[in-house]
């Protein structure tokens, strides 16, 4: 029999037992039967028979305990036979030596319930989880242990790690299949290959897990490119992120000790997570159904990350940060665009995945009916009886000469108010060296500004002050970094000195505001003046409970508690504008609500609505036109035909960057209120061709592509103002659209270049350049992957790019989202002339380039392609 026949028979055997080999309920069998779960040559073996894992990730901490069983029934209804979950160290041991496996942290109860519902479990108790979870799952207090280094062989870390994993073992080792439970296998560490490559450290992990009682099947899981570093010989190497069956098999075969399977995708991503200030990530089910079908057809086991995301409540959201991207704190909703939405309702993705899974079941096998979506309610009016200043509800402070971090204060999460007295000054720059992460600045109780780590803000101007002026700095921990090199630099609060001008400020009182429980507000309702943070207490009465979403639009930034449950953060910048309030945490009659509001103390209106709002990004750059600005130039492109010659001239021929297109005016036209710059694949002779020329413009015998570049050269220039362009860009391979400016004096780069909008190779760019040292360009270049904005779905829509340019700075944004900001004083030509290229008039250009040095290869792209512009407008001060 050939390999193909063996393969088909193996796959059929897999399918025959997908839904028949399920863990027996302990309510029906005593003692519970023990199983063997082992590695076969191509498949997992359950009691000696091939078994294909079809798993979905969901985390017990992100789902109300009262709703665990409902979510599991949904998993069964989609066709899953297994669920995967992490164990979160910082939830299980919030303070050193104090373990908590109760309530929503009762992971053992969660797993037993899964067994009752006929589900197997893949357990991932590694101390590091990533998971968009605070500090990647590590407890904050590890940073107080002298010399401790996470994810290393450092003795203090190993000691604490061993203590933790033994406690987890006491809870969960008896629940492995070989002890009568339903845990099929256990992962050690987590994507370690993305972080390090110390096999001795992984060996220690393995030994500790075995010593803790995990004597069943162990495995590692890493992204494909990191399997070599993260795999431990002797354990199954699972792979994350791949869904090409052959690539999965090749990767596992390469690193598995046996040189063959079985094959397990430990994280398969049908969508992605969100962070504050960026759009909600959604991916159509149709993008994944074919891939899921191929995986299951190949007999590969899979764990969807996530099947159900739920909500990261309280202060447990994490953050991403590296040297190439800004600090990105994650939102409280962990909806993830998963098959089961944040509230546990089936989505279109659920139904489409269910069809694929059903297709692979033995003929005649039917999945359970899909439970109905949960009923929702509206709460028309939530009233607040008490509003009190947070500054009047402070605990006893700690005093120190210099600011103390959260960790030094033995505080995990929440806020710290730093207070000192100023001796009186003429005013100057207040600088916080090491702000982690968000600060409100007050003088004598009046707010003077906000500093936000996302924008790398560390300083602001303070006015003249008198002696004994009170300076308050309220600092919020937005979530410790959960991935990357800064995992080891995760202290919170103020981690350095605070200066006013050249003076180091000393003598600080620190007020810890961890909000471990709902705030207690005893002060009667009082008139609040100024933009101070407030605590609000209110109530609402229900005759019927049901899921609802608190509509926080109109509020600023803060936290919400209902009936003592911390529901998570809200922030006006979005994309999350609602907070999910599960029915399980409501009650008939009077329900209590408390809110901490940081920015808008006067807000009193709140209601519950029946649908979530998770994709509404509010401008993070002020996009209102100042009253003293007027429109000085625009083109609305309302007249069909050629663009207005009073506004535009054209570049012609091959121009720059070895681009493949030949610029010609006929590729630009106005149609239905849009400027259309069209790139075409068309071949014709190059009129500039010179055989054997060293000039790339002349040594091409033919033109392969044509496009257009419009510019205002000789017609209109501007110095300072607000520039706006609303357009839709093409992001197919090889496309390089741009809207940019160049200075009128000097050659490039001494004349100065501003790329307000530029795209190539899946990156949105915002750049400023002048002449640097050694006659090279000096750049400030900020990029953002278009996939992080929504990929093709984002590019299919119109967006508004802006430049705000004044005597001091240039700010570039899209849809109000800050892309780049520079000081003009940092961009003076370094060629000895001290010429200031951004204090001279500039003209603008609009173009769609193809290929060249940056645009990528256009060979696979179907032409024509378009860059469409709705309008271009310039405003200047009157």
Describe, in short, the structure shown.
Helix content is 14%, strand content 33%.
Plain-language structure description:
By secondary structure, the chain is α+β, with helices and mostly antiparallel strands. Helices cover 14% and strands 33% of the residues. Helix 9 packs parallel to helix 10. The strands form ten sheets. Strands 35, 37, 38, 39, 40, 42, 47, 48, 49 and 51 form a ten-stranded mixed beta sheet that branches. Strands 4-5-6-7-8-9-10-11 form an eight-stranded parallel β-barrel.
Compute the number of strand runs: 51
Ranges where pLDDT stays below 50 over 5 or more residues in a row are 1-30
**Rough outline:** globular
Mean pLDDT reading: 92
- What structural class results from the helix and strand content? alpha+beta
Fraction of residues in helix:
10-25%
N- and C-termini, Cα separation:
85 Å
Descriptors:
alpha+beta, 10-stranded mixed β-sheet, 8-stranded parallel β-barrel, 12 helices, 14% helix, disordered N terminus
Topology, element by element:
Elements: H1 3-18, E1 37-39, E2 44-46, E3 49-51, E4 54-57, H2 68-78, E5 82-86, H3 89-92, H4 107-116, E6 120-124, H5 155-172, E7 183-187, H6 199-211, E8 217-223, H7 227-230, E9 236-240, H8 245-255, E10 264-268, H9 286-297, E11 301-304, E12 319-322, E13 325-329, H10 348-359, E14 383-389, E15 398-400, E16 415-422, E17 428-432, E18 435-436, E19 438-443, E20 446-452, E21 459-462, E22 469-476, E23 481-483, E24 493-494, E25 498-500, E26 503-504, E27 508-513, E28 534-542, E29 548-551, E30 557-562, E31 565-571, E32 578-581, E33 589-597, E34 608-609, E35 629-635, E36 649-650, E37 661-663, E38 668-671, E39 674-685, E40 702-707, E41 709-711, E42 721-728, E43 735-743, E44 753-760, E45 763-771, E46 777-785, H11 792-795, E47 799-805, E48 809-814, E49 817-823, E50 842-850, H12 852-855, E51 865-877
Parallel strand pairs: 4-5, 4-11, 5-6, 6-7, 7-8, 8-9, 9-10, 10-11, 12-23, 37-40
Antiparallel strand pairs: 1-2, 2-3, 12-13, 14-28, 15-27, 16-22, 16-27, 17-21, 17-25, 18-24, 19-20, 19-22, 25-26, 28-33, 29-32, 29-34, 30-31, 30-33, 35-51, 36-41, 38-39, 39-40, 39-51, 41-50, 42-47, 42-51, 43-44, 43-50, 44-45, 45-46, 47-48, 48-49
Helix pairs in contact: 9-10
């Amino acid at each position: 029999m050939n390999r193909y026949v063996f393969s088909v028979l193996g796959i059929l055997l897999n399918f025959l037992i997908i839904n028949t080999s399920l863990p027996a309920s302990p309510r029906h069998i005593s003692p519970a039967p023990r199983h063997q779960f082992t590695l076969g040559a191509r498949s997992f073996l359950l009691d000696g028979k091939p078994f294909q894992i079809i798993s979905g990730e969901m985390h017990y901490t992100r789902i109300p305990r009262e709703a665990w069983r409902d979510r599991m029934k949904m998993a069964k209804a989609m066709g899953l036979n297994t669920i995967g979950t992490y164990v979160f160290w910082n939830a299980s041991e919030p303070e050193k030596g104090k373990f908590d496996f109760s309530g929503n942290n009762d992971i053992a109860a969660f797993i037993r319930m899964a067994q009752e519902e006929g589900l197997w479990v893949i357990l991932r108790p590694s101390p590091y989880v990533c998971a968009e979870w605070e500090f990647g799952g590590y407890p904050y207090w590890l940073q107080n242990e002298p010399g401790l280094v996470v994810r290393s062989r450092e003795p203090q870390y190993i000691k604490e790690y061993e203590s933790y994993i033994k406690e987890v073992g006491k809870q969960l080792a008896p629940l492995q299949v070989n002890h009568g439970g339903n845990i099929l296998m256990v992962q050690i560490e987590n994507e370690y290959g993305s972080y390090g490559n110390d096999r001795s450290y992984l060996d220690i992990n393995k030994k500790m897990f075995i010593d803790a009682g995990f004597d069943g099947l162990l495995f590692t899981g890493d992204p494909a490119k990191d399997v070599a570093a993260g795999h431990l010989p002797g354990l199954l190497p699972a792979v994350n992120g791949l869904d090409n069956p052959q690539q999965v098999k090749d990767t596992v075969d390469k690193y598995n000790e046996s040189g063959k399977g079985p094959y397990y995708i430990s994280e398969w991503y049908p969508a992605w997570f969100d962070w504050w200030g960026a759009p909600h990530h959604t991916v159509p089910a149709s993008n994944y159904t074919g891939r899921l079908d191929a995986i299951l057809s190949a007999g590969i086991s899979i764990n969807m990350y996530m099947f159900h995301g739920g909500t990261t409540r309280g202060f447990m959201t994490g953050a991403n940060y590296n040297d190439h991207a800004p600090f990105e704190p994650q939102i409280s909703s962990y909806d993830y665009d998963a098959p089961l939405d944040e509230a546990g309702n089936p989505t279109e993705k659920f139904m489409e995945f269910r069809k694929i899974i059903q297709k692979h079941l033995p003929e005649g096998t039917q999945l359970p009916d899909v439970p109905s979506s949960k009923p929702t309610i509206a709460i028309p009016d939530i009233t607040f009886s008490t509003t009190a200043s947070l500054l009047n509800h402070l605990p006893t402070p700690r005093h120190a000469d210099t600011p103390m971090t959260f960790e030094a204060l033995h505080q995990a999460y929440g806020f710290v108010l730093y207070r000192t007295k100023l001796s009186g000054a003429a005013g100057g720059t207040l600088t916080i060296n090491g702000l982690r992460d968000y600060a409100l600045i007050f003088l004598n109780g009046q707010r003077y500004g906000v500093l936000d780590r996302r924008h790398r803000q560390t300083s602001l101007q303070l006015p003249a002050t008198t002696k004994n002026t009170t300076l308050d700095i309220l600092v919020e921990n937005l979530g410790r970094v959960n991935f990357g090199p800064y995992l080891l630099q995760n202290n919170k609060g103020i981690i350095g000195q605070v200066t006013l001008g050249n003076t180091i400020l000393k003598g600080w009182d620190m007020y810890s505001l961890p909000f471990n429980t709902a705030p207690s507000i005893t002060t009667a309702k009082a008139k609040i003046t100024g933009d101070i943070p407030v605590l609000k207490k209110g109530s609402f009465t229900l005759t019927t409970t049901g899921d609802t979403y608190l509509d926080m639009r109109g509020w600023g930034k803060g936290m919400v508690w209902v009936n003592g449950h911390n529901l998570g953060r809200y922030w006006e910048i979005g994309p999350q504008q609602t907070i999910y309030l599960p029915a399980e945490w409501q009650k008939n009659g009077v329900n209590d609500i408390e809110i901490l509001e940081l920015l808008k103390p006067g807000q009193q209106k709140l209601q519950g609505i029946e649908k979530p709002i998770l994709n509404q990004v509010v401008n993070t750059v002020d996009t209102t036109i100042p009253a003293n600005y007027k429109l000085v130039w625009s083109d609305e492109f309302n007249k069909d035909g050629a663009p207005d010659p009073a506004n535009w001239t054209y570049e012609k021929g091959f121009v720059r960057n070895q681009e493949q297109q030949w610029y010609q005016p006929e590729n630009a036209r106005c149609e239905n209120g849009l400027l259309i710059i069209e790139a075409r694949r068309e071949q014709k002779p190059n009129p500039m061709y010179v055989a054997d020329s060293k000039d790339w413009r002349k040594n091409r015998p033919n033109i392969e592509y044509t496009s257009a570049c419009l510019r205002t050269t000789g017609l209109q220039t501007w110095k300072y103002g607000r520039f706006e362009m609303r357009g839709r860009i093409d992001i197919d391979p090889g496309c390089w659209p741009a809207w940019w400016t160049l200075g009128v004096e000097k050659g490039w780069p001494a004349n100065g270049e501003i790329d307000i909008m530029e795209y190539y190779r899946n990156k949105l760019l915002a750049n400023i350049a002048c002449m640097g040292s050694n006659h090279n360009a000096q750049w400030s270049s900020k990029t953002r992957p278009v996939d992080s904005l929504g990929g093709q779905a984002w590019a299919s829509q119109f967006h508004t790019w802006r430049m705000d340019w004044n005597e001091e700075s240039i700010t570039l944004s899209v849809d109000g989202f800050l892309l780049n900001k520079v000081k003009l004083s940092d961009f003076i030509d370094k060629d000895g002339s001290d010429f200031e290229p951004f204090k001279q008039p500039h003209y603008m250009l609009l173009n769609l380039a193809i290929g060249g040095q940056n645009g990528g290869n256009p060979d696979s792209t179907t032409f024509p392609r378009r860059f469409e512009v709705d309008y271009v407008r310039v405003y200047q001060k009157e």
